[in-house]
Design goal:
Elements: H1 2-14, H2 20-33, E1 34-37, H3 42-45, E2 58-60, E3 67-71, E4 77-79, E5 93-95, E6 100-103, E7 117-119, E8 124-128, E9 141-143, E10 148-151, E11 165-167, E12 172-173
The structure holds 2-acetamido-2-deoxy-beta-D-glucopyranose (4 copies).
């Protein structure tokens, strides 16, 4: 009997799916990593009393009501990217261009396997472009221009078979353009 109960309990725990509440806690983590909000957009707008689907910069899918697009471009935010951002598992489009995000990109972002569009252009990200960028198997557009990325361009970028646009100008790369880019 207790074994059965235990089994039932385990099932309840493990079938608790990520949902809109997960997206809310993810975005609250991001909010807490935004250290400067020039136009004071988030303080009142990103409020837990309304659905994240109505938060400025967020778009949800009509079927699952999960965040599918995030556009924080030109909102003049300063901050870093928390590892929790990798939990936005329905995200297809991420646009952070022309902001003041800095630091490095957490590995957990590799979980965003639905991403088609990623724009981190004109920020202050540093370190190397992560080699796991090829986890974004559906990626069609990648903009990393005007940042402080350095080191070599990872050869894994050549695995992005759906890629149509790539913009890397104004960074501090060294070495050669990987021969795998010829696969694109
Ligand atoms: C947040 O901003 C969005 C987009 O500008 C707006 O539609 C919404 O009403 C705002 N919500 C609150 C609570 O201010
Ligand atoms: C994000 O918003 C900006 C400013 O409104 C707009 O120009 C840009 O096209 C949007 N990005 C995406 C991916 O829709
Ligand atoms: C989100 O991701 C982090 C690690 O990246 C994890 O520890 C956490 O449990 C996740 N949160 C939710 C609500 O799924
Ligand atoms: C991705 O690219 C690397 C380096 O070019 C290669 O070694 C690796 O096998 C590729 N992975 C996949 C899944 O195609």
């Amino acid at each position: 009997m207790s074994l059965l109960l235990f089994a039932a309990f385990r099932v309840t725990l493990s079938t608790n799916p990520p949902n809109l509440y997960t997206d809310q806690s993810t975005l609250l983590a991001l909010k807490s990593h935004i250290t400067h909000d020039l136009h004071n957009l988030l303080a009142t707008n990103w409020s837990t009393s309304i659905s994240v689907c109505n938060w400025v910069g967020e778009t949800c899918g009509s079927r699952h009501h999960r965040v599918t697009a995030m556009n924080l471009s030109t909102m003049d935010f300063t901050g870093t990217i928390p590892s929790q951002l990798g939990n936005l598992s329905f995200l297809a489009s991420l646009d952070f261009r022309h902001s003041s995000f800095h630091g490095s990109l957490p590995t957990e972002l590799a979980n965003l396997h639905r991403l088609k569009y990623l724009n981190f252009g004109s920020n202050s990200f540093r370190r190397e472009i992560p080699s796991w960028f090829d986890y974004f198997a559906k990626l069609q557009g990648l903009w990393l221009y005007m940042n402080n990325f350095n080191g070599v361009i990872p050869s894994t970028l050549g695995n992005l078979s759906k890629l149509e646009t790539l913009s890397l100008y104004d960074n501090n790369f060294k070495g050669q353009i990987p021969i795998t880019m010829g696969n694109l």
